[in-house]
Each structure stands twice: as structure tokens, then as C-alpha cells.
Amino acid sequence: MKHSCSSRCLTVVAALAFAAVTAPALAVAQPTVTVVMKGLDNPRGLAFAPNGALFVAEAGRGGAPCPGTTGLNCYGLTGAVSRLWHGHQDRVATGLPSISFPQGAQARGPHDISMNGLGNARVTIGLEADPASRETLGRPGLGWLVDVPASTLMAPSTQSRTGEWSFAVDVAAFETIHNPDSSRLESDPYGILALPGHYVVVDAGANALLDVDEHGEISLLGVFPSRPGRPTDSVPTSVAVGSDGAYYVGEFTGFGAPLPPPGDAKIYRVVPGEGVQVFCTGFNRIIDIAFDGDGSLYVLQIYARPTPTDPGPGVLWHVTPPPPDSLDRSCPDRQRVDTGVVLDTPTAIAIGPDGALYVSNRGTRIGVGEVLRIER
């Protein structure tokens, strides 16, 4: 991910130090880490079905190898959704829109997946461009929400129905009309959360949080601010609902010059009708967040540092939220999670029904993407 891009760019695409003790060093138990899915193309969002099946959105490989081009210009129908069920890994939906850099790296395509009811799912398809470019450059399907039915997601391995999905809502078209952040047009549907009767969608390009009702009507829930004094956008990536019913949104922050200082990425709290409030600060390049059953929060950074030249590995934090009346938004009660492995451009986290952490790893490459299971 070492390339120049616009200030709005979402390029999505460790050994821990232990304190010295005077007594003899004690053995520190390492978590058990298992690769449960592998061979994925730019794996992104994770979701569990009620029956325990695990699904991962694969952003695909664009139109790779796409020889003779540079930049984010390789369009193809290589996006997918893969499933892990009863120990078997299958691609259950294929042919979804995807766009990538040459050789399929750092694709935009199926970015996130959220289960709706007993087996249906909705998937975000990225764009990261002006919605008008879809028609002028021949890139249909980017910037949409896609529905994948239970008949596809739950089909036995021997009876796959990989092409039975449908376009549901054109999120990018909403910005064409409304342009939530009142600057140049760009849309990149990224995170999604299915809730009873509606969906909440993060548009990383528009810096906006959107509500999509059951009829496909879109309304604006909030806009996330750029940084004062520098033209770098918020680039929100992830949304989760807290025990208080509010929406919590993590931001990646853009790569526009000057680069953000360390700790500049924030988590916002959004209550419909009450605006956007800073909930937690002090992170770098947030790519996903997830609440645990006890109300604590896991925050996944795709990189340890904000600089594109030396970003370092991914980092996972465990955060105890501050009291509601606290004026300190630094969220000091946090711990860096020892995952037992070096996180290589991780792109998503989910807490499984078994209590383990599941992380999409190697999330910006083709053929080597994986999902890790990390026991706690």
C-alpha cells in the first residue's frame, strides 16, 4: 500500500514488549491461533449466521492480471463470499464486481457482510470514486448493496448456487444527489450492520453514516469531519451498535498531506438526531470494531502507525469504554491484545459464538488471504 492517492483514499486494503520484573521471568501463555480459512482474495468483513456458519466477503482480484495499466483500474467480476461450515470452506457467491490495482492487489469490491434474519445477507460493494465514473469507464455494480439469499448462503457444497444474488440499493447514487460531506463527489460503501427492519451503512468515500430502510430508501445519520488545518478526510470504515443502542464508528483517516499524527484516528458515537460525538481517541488506521458481550470494545488497526512508508503490522486493542459523563476521550483503559501472531494487513474482526476472536488477515492480497481463529 505504498502509493500516492487522494486525501479521501481508503487504502485497504508484532512482537510485544513485556515489562521487566525483578523476580525470574514467568512463562506467558500464548493464545491458540488456528487458520480456519485460506486461499482468499482480499478478504474483508466477517459475519456469523445463526447456525454457526462463518462468512467472509472477498473483495476479489479486479480484472487481474490487467497488464499495461497502473492505479485502481483493473475491473472484473471476481468478488465473492466464502463460507466455513462444518469444517468445509466453499465460495457460495461469485461474480461480484471488483476493481483492483495490477495483479489484483488492494481490491475494492465486496467489503463487508451482515446477516439478515435466519440466513439472508447483505454485502457492501466498494467504489472509491465519483459515481459517474461507473458509466463513463464501464464499471457497473460498484457502489451498491447486494442481497445474497439463504438459498445461496446455506446451499450444500454439492449444490452450490453461486450466481443467485441480486443488486439491492445503489448507495453511490445517493451521494450523487445529496453529497453528504458537501465536497467533491466520491462514494465507497464499506461497513454494514443489519438491524431489524433496516441497515446502517458506512460510506468511506462520502465520510458518512447512512440508514437504509427495508424499501431501499436512504437517509443520512451523520457526517464525520475532516481534520482542521489539513485536507485529510475521516474515512470511516466500521460500525457497531453498543449496549446503549447508539452507533459507534471507527475511522481510518486519509493519506492526504500532511499525514495524520500518531493517535489521530477516532471512534465516534452517533445517536440519530443528536449528531456525531467523539467517543474515543488515540488510534491509528482503524479498519474494524466489535463490541463484546460485557460492553468492552475490540478495535482493529490495519497498521500500527499512520505513515504509509513504514506502517508496521496490524494491532488489536481491547478497550473498556469510559463512563458516559467522562470528559476524557482518550480511553486510557485499553490493552494491546497479544494475538500470538503478527497481523499482516488485517481487515476485519468478529467475535464468534464460541467466544473466540476471528480476524481476516492478509486482507490486501490475492490467493493468500486467510481467517484466523484466536482463542481468548
Can you characterise this structure?
- With 376 residues, this protein is mainly beta.
- The protein has one domain (44-374): Neuraminidase (6 Propeller), CATH 2.120.10.30.
- Helix content is 4%, strand content 40%.
- It has helices spanning 133-136, 150-153, 171-178; strands at 33-40, 43-48, 54-58, 74-85, 88-100, 110-116, 120-125, 144-148, 166-170, 189-195, 198-203, 208-213, 218-223, 236-241, 247-251, 265-270, 276-283, 286-291, 297-301, 315-319, 334-336, 348-351, 357-361, 369-374.
- The strands form six sheets. A four-stranded antiparallel sheet has the order 1-24-23-22, with no helix packed on it. It has a four-stranded antiparallel sheet with strand order 2-3-4-5, with no helix packed on it.
- The longest helix has 8 residues, at 171-178.
- The model is unreliable at 1-26 (pLDDT under 50).
Would you summarize the structure shown here?
The relative contact order is 0.16. It is built from 3 helices and 24 strands. With 376 residues, the protein is mainly β.
Radius of gyration: 19 Å
* SSE string, helices as H and strands as E: EEEEEEEHEHEHEEEEEEEEEEEEEEE
The CATH superfamily is TolB, C-terminal domain
Give the rounded overall mean pLDDT: 89
CATH architecture field: 6 Propeller
Distance between the first and last residues' Cα = 30 Å
Using the alpha-carbon principal axes, give the shape.
globular
